[in-house]
Amino acid sequence: MRRGVLYGVLAGALWGTVFVVPRQLADFSPLLLSAGRYVMYGLVSLAALAPMLRRVWPRLTRGDLVALVKLALMGNLLYYLFLASAIHMVGIAPASLIVGVLPVTVTLLGRRDHGAVPLARLAWPLAMIAAGIVCINVDVFTAGASDGLHASTLTKIAGLGCAVGALVCWTWFAVENARYLHRNAHFSGNEWSVLWGVVTGALGALLWLAILAMPSGTVQESVSASRWTSFWQLNLVLAIGASWLGNGLWNAAAKRLPLTLSGQMIVFETLFALLYGFIYDHRLPRGLEIAAIVLLVAGVSWSVRQHAGGPEETAHGDGIVPADGQHGEGHSGGHSERHGNAA
């Protein structure tokens, strides 16, 4: 149990870096950040695919490819485009707290599939989450520029909209990915995750070529060679750390923890994202931010506990936690595992 908790915390620590990199690369456009990150992730996935290619290729159908393209577009490229845009416009704290509601939104969207608990039982957890979202939105519009961001009201509204867009993308992805895996069990969770990474990399490369074909300065302003070096180094760190190692640690944690506990462990991604953000901005959280953190973490954890023993699913960041043990990374019957790559 203790080792499982440790693995879950370490996974959250790695996933939290996904929220910091866009701040570190603030001089790069979100479109370029999304393309660059997933080109690197595609290369890492391609290396992982090589040893299993002979056994995976014959099972790959046209329907699988169509599904992988849709999932990669929604769950990776669009998700990260929205997330990076939100972080550029309103900062790490609002973006991470809004996206951190994922375990609840996935449960609500997939509730008809799995006979979820009545909404009446979720009334208080959802009320706490709503109150937390109100707190973080009020903070965005009332706080000064202590986090290093000087944004207009319209920019802040757009940034919050992008954070909601990231939440919508990942909610849709998590539910649709689980449904597809439930209907099509001819790939293991690891095989499907690797294929998804390769397809994501191919789409990222196409997006990169499209950006290159645009007139100079349309998407990205000129930056120094040293900044380009940082760009590729940080994207490689995300590909190996957040996507590959983070998933492995989560799967190891999920095999050792009960479903309700592993579902709550996902909250560490949000907490580490906030911690990194406050350290990066050299400041302490403001009062409304503290209130939002407490309300959201408590609300999400309470919602997960309300589903104890039920057949629902909880998801985040870049993955889904199947409660029924019938699909997901490794098919470890009875325990939940995160499927896919980290956000």
UniProtKB/TrEMBL annotation:
Ranges where the EamA domain occurs: 3-136
The keyword Membrane appears for this protein: yes
Location relative to the cell: Membrane
Principal subcellular localization: membrane
Any Pfam family: EamA
Membrane-crossing segments per the record: 36-53, 65-83, 89-110, 122-145, 157-174, 194-211, 231-250, 257-280
Membrane topology annotation: Multi-pass membrane protein
Nucleotidyltransferase in keyword set: no
Keyword annotations: Membrane, Transmembrane, Transmembrane helix
Database matches in InterPro entries: AA-Vitamin_Transporters, EamA_dom, EmrE-like
Region (Disordered): 308-343
Protein name as catalogued: DMT family transporter
Phylogenetic placement of the source organism: Bacteria, Pseudomonadati, Pseudomonadota, Betaproteobacteria, Burkholderiales
